[in-house]
Amino acid sequence: MKPSLPQVARIVQIVDESPRVRTLVFDLSMAADPGQFVMAWLPGVDEKPFSLMRAQPVTLTIARVGPFSSAVHRLGVGDRLWLRGPLGQPFILPPIEAGQPPAGGTNGEALLLVAGGCGVAPLHFLAERARAQGWEVWVVIGAQTAADVILANRFAALGAQVRIATEDGSRGEQGLATDAAERLLHSTRFRMVYACGPEPMLEAVEGLAQRYRLPAQLSYERYMRCGFGVCGSCSRDGWLVCRDGPVRQVEIQREER
Ligand SMILES: Cc1cc2nc3c(=O)[nH]c(=O)nc-3n(C[C@H](O)[C@H](O)[C@H](O)COP(=O)(O)OP(=O)(O)OC[C@H]3O[C@@H](n4cnc5c(N)ncnc54)[C@H](O)[C@@H]3O)c2cc1C
Ligand code: FES
Fold first, then answer.
1. Measured in angstroms, how far is the CA atom of residue 41 from the centroid of ligand 1?
2. What is the span of the domain harbouring residue 47?
3. Which of 5, 80, 129, 227 has the fewest CB atoms within 10 Å distance of its CB?
């Protein structure tokens, strides 16, 4: 991955998704695929990675958790951030087999997307691309409480089937996103499972993928500095999340069920 220079981007719209999460739309577009990320730099503060929620125009969904994200939340329309990217390996949609209906209809197979926390952002980008190709998309959004559920209406507007799981049961099914995902795996035939969220959730999704003999694509987060494979700070046992990921392909021999 070649390093790219930061491009200045001005905020043109801010949407509050929850008390802690907002979506920023910029006056910048880039050629990018779902799952890729940008390094966002605020001079004098820090530079941190964020998944693209959309690339045209660049749109980021940012949770306020610490110093950098709080500084971004203090920005208003017209303020600037500097963005490097797109970076990293994207999610890949399965090839559409010959003879299947064209984009716009459904091609008869479904994709399962499992999102936790801000993992909904890249999966929204993926859902948009997948729907445009005619895939039936099911998404499970996991959150602690109803107030933490984000982007559900946006997925529904894309024509995706949305399931919500909250740990306290205040919205949707009570329990973890992976519990709700397992119920869907019992009842619906899927071609691929995609997930982005906390690492224990990714491990559980990998376990489900093994059990249901489905290939999976999992997107990881790690602390990053360079964003393109030089500093080593994002290593997972030598696998660099910024360069080799953030999406990891889990291949599984498929069996007809
Ligand atoms: C490839 C990649 C894509 C990312 N995409 C997004 C994205 O789309 N949206 C987004 O908001 N963040 C995303 N992140 C995380 C983001 O880069 C920062 O880590 C995050 O904004 C925290 O930075 P901070 O300086 O505000 O807080 P920090 O000082 O880094 O963290 C403050 C505290 O919050 C905890 N924390 C860090 N991140 C989270 C989190 N996501 N949820 C709950 N607690 C957390 C930390 O453990 C720490 O205790 C992504 C990270 C990677 C590697
Ligand atoms: S962030 Fe530097 S190697 Fe990944």
1. 14
2. 7-87
3. 5
